[in-house]
Input
Amino acid sequence: MCGIVGYVGKEKAKTRIIDGLKRLEYRGYDSAGIALATGEGIEVRKRVGGIEKLEEIITDAGFDGEMGIGHTRWATHGAPSDINAHPHLNEKGDIAVVHNGIIENYLELREWLADEKNITFRSETDSEVIAHLIGACYEGDIYEAVRKATKKMRGAYAICVMAAAEPDKLIAVRKDAPLVVGCGDGCNFVASDIPALLPYTKEVYLLENNETVVLTPDDVCIYDDGGNRVTRDVFHVTWDVDAAEKEGYEHFMLKEIHEQPKGLWETLTRRLDENGDIKLDGISMTGEDIRNFDKIYIVACGTAYHAGLVGKYIIEKYAGITVEVDIASEFRYRYPLVDERTLFIAISQSGETTDTLEALREAKRKGARVLSVVNVVGSSVARESDDVFYTWAGPEIAVASTKAYTTQLMCMYLLGLYMGKQTGVLEEKKYREIIEELKTIPDMLTEILEKENDIKGIARRFYRREKVFFIGRGTDSAVSYEGSLKLKEISYINSFAIAAGELKHGTIALVEPGVLFIAMCTQDRLYEKMVSNVQEIIARSGEIFAVAKEGGEEIKKHADNTFYIPRCSDDVAPILSVVPLQLFAYYVSVMRGNDADKPRNLAKSVTVE
Ligand code: AGP
Output
């Protein structure tokens, strides 16, 4: 989604803003722009295309200043074009705005501005309306003008605003779209996400929803939507620029696949007390609350939804509570049976996915208790939940989610174990056994990564295929859905996943020479059935790449390629078996000449419905 960077201070703003925008490229965009207070008023330069295209038109030293705002746009209203790029100016050209989100009543506002203020619009965007609206409200105090204007706006918006008449003051507002403030030495920043700030500061204010911040070179003032001054502790960022860089890997995605052992260890060990018991710090849900739940909804999108599919198996088995898993964009339009005895679990890496956020709000309105599993600290989903379970995966930059997924799975196990202890369904001995096995996961995952070249070889054999189907049973079917999404979103191969038991009910008609089936065979109790499925496919000239546990020799007699994961229980297998699929998708994408980090049409965080 769009990226925002604002700077006000005693140094030159241009390089700091452009550098910050480059660190937000992972959010996905199609155009970029910058506005600077140059001393002769505000000057805006913007262009469709990458930041490098913008840099071509801002090389002149005279185009600079000590305050400015920059933007990378992911188009929602209006096609990618120079004129639709941000920043947008009011008619007089003395107020500039950048915006992330959607103004739902922009047409109504556009008509009012045209009719009542005789405004002529230059672009097709909803964002330009904001600039004119603030201009119409401006009477010499940009903070007051922004307050008045935002009261007329409906929708989601993170905005940053500057006025030519006040060249040392930036105003920013957060409403249902991410925004953070960076505190520098004699300067201050605002940005859509923390990586943009890291070269300059690790002292960050996480803005709450409906808050407005006024930045000057030496001060940061936060106000709530009633205009009351808010005090806020500074959040010290513990990870550094390198953590948000590639560290020698060709792509962020490969780096993040390799970071999984560390992320899983962090996610697990931070939740074990000195006795090895699970402690869910920061989660206020009591044992009594848990025993009172008669249903759990797990609601998410994409990869996070696939983590929920595994979570269903685990939580129902360990805690004995019915779990329904739903796609967020569907949940809202059903008539979900949600009440005070419902636990609503939202899973979201970014914590900004609009579909998930709106589903969470719907559940809250119906009385559910909301727990979110989130990777981005202080994100919207986190802030609107009763309890937050952070995945501690570190920043995930690649659009295709990998380490966030496996740490989400880890959170599902921890929740299932914790709740199972509270409901009494899980015996102490089993509880301890599973925790001990989870501790071995990082090392077993490292063993898999050490066989990366085996996967690369299998990718080389199959990367030109145009039809790749994933099959599995039990939690292997949930992992199949994730493997298929990984492959399609970065290789653009037509892929889908199906529960292996469903093949005979229609899909087996698609088996023909050249079709590759990736068969997940890690569930001991379902292994023989999977071998049978594989034989049915081979009998019809399909090809097989199987993933199985070490020791499962039978499958190897039938599959064209077999990749073995270390022996483990059926329960924890999903955390391991997904990794060969992540690597397979990554290498196929690279071999097909794609950008594995920034696949076409996709964004890292989807903050539109
Ligand atoms: C996953 O690889 C995709 N990038 C996408 O499906 C993603 O999982 C989905 O958009 C949900 O994002 P979230 O976890 O940030 O809510």
Remarks:
- The pocket of 2-deoxy-2-amino glucitol-6-phosphate is lined by residues 301-304, 348-350, 353, 356, 399-401, 489, 605-606 (CB under 6 Å).
- The longest helix spans residues 428-449.
- The chain has a mean pLDDT of 94.
- The two ends are 12 Å apart (CA to CA).
